[in-house]
Amino acid sequence: MSSLINAVYKYYKVSEAPEITLEANPDDLNNNKILELAKSPVNRLSIGVQSFFERDLKLMNRAHNANEAKLCLEEATKYFDNISIDLIYGIPDLTNDDWIENIDTALSYKIQHISSYALTVEPKTALESLIKKGVVKNVNDKLAQEQFNILIDKLEGSDFLHYELSNFGKSNYFSKNNTAYWQGKSYLGIGPSAHSFNGKERSWNIRNNTKYIKSIQENKLPNETEMLTVTDKYNEYIMTGLRTIWGVSIEKVNYTFGENYKTYLLKHSEKYINEHLLYIDNGKLLTTKKGKFLSDGIASNLFKINLS
Predict the structure, then answer these.
(1) d(Cα 182, Cα 244) in Å, to the nearest integer?
(2) Which DSSP symbol is given to 13?
(3) Stretch 121-132: mean pLDDT
(4) C-alpha angle 54-56-61 in degrees, rounded to nearest 5
(5) What is the pLDDT of residue 308?
(6) Confidence of residue 306 (pLDDT cuts 50, 70, 90)
(7) DSSP string, 126-167
(8) Interatomic CA distance for residues 281 and 287, integer angstroms
(9) pTM, to two decimals
(10) Sheet containing 195-197: which strands, arranged edge to edge?
(11) C-alpha distances in angstroms, 305 versus 197, 266, 267, 285?
């Protein structure tokens, strides 16, 4: 890892205070590993806790247990100020009281950033099979929405800013990496299946490790590239903008994409404004609290189709 970071410093101009995040699960972070990381250039940890309840972790087929999650956070917070953890809501049989306990447990470790997602049932997974067999209850969307609203209230009451649909951070602790994605900035992905974006085109590396290494050894870049159209860029801006506290700038839509896009956006937003799911403030189109949980669906209905 140090070799990789040193290579970045060798070949790129790095900001004076870069955010260098390591993503890991609690079972990856024993005391010795945390101590090693504390001595490295890594200055932010993103830890996949998911839940502090044993039954939830077993249901999601996680490698760690609840006690490992707690011990990991106890140790990590001794050495790292900037820590983010992931939490999942909408898990079958997770009551609202359990969810509140999960949040309170996370807050007890003085965590500065929390990413939280609704449980999704991926096709051809063990969870999908268990649900089909009736062994596990299916995901309850109504309960997931209730728990999403509980999350907002609890974290905002603890001085977290809900700066993106699934992300909450204390002031000055927003994820710089993910914020770059949501604000349409360029990024470079290195390694198998990594994605990159340069403002005009998106590319993704092949997933196969062996083929990736062989191509690099042959001085070939093993990736596919997609040139984004104006409509692609508009749609992405709507999708990412509505997920964040920065919203969608109507002026930016006008000067970046053109008058017809602005007209289209305002016309198709009227329905959601009337339903109190969207509102306009200071020239920005934003989701209301009621509309946040539905923001991806709303955004997709504001997409432009078949325009060059």
Answers:
(1) 8
(2) -
(3) 73
(4) 95
(5) 46
(6) low
(7) HHHHHHHTTSSPPP-HHHHHHHHHHHHHHHHTTT-EEEETTE
(8) 10
(9) 0.91
(10) 195-197, 201-205, 223-227
(11) 22, 16, 15, 20
Rounded to the nearest 10°, the torsion over CA 19, 25, 28, 30 is 80
Residue 127 pLDDT > 90: no
| pLDDT of 55 higher than 90 | yes
Q: Residue 128: what pLDDT?
A: 67
- Please tell me the distance from the alpha carbon of residue 245 to that of residue 289, in angstroms, as a whole number: 11
Contact between residue 152 and residue 161 where contact means Cβ atoms under 8 Å apart:
no
Give 142-157 pLDDT, tens digit per residue: 999 999 999 999 999 9
Q: Which two tokens stand for residue 244?
A: 């964040």
Question: Would you tell me how many other CB atoms lie within 10 Å of the CB of residue 141?
Answer: 11
Q: Does pLDDT of 129 surpass 90? A: no
Whole-angstrom distance, CA of residue 127 vs CA of residue 194 = 27
Helical residues (DSSP H) of the chain, grouped into ranges: 2-11, 31-38, 54-59, 66-79, 96-108, 126-132, 141-156, 176-182, 209-217, 230-242, 250-257, 259-274, 289-292, 295-301
Q: Which residues sit opposite 249 in a β-bridge?
A: 284
Residue 284 and residue 248 in contact, taking contact as beta carbons nearer than 8 Å: yes
Q: CA 202, CA 267: separation in Å to the nearest integer?
A: 30
Place of tokens 């490992």: 68
**Between 45 and 1, residue with greater pLDDT:** 45
**Both structure tokens of 5:** 């970071």
Encoded amino acid at 212, one letter = Y
Please report, as a single letter, which amino acid is at residue 31.
N
Q: How far apart are the first and last CA of the chain?
A: 43
Give the whole-number percent of the chain exceeding pLDDT 90: 85
Q: CA-CA distance, 86 to 97, in Å (whole number)?
A: 19
Higher pLDDT, 203 or 93: 203
At residue 226, φ and ψ (nearest 5 deg) are -125, 125
Q: Write the single-letter amino acid at 297.
A: G
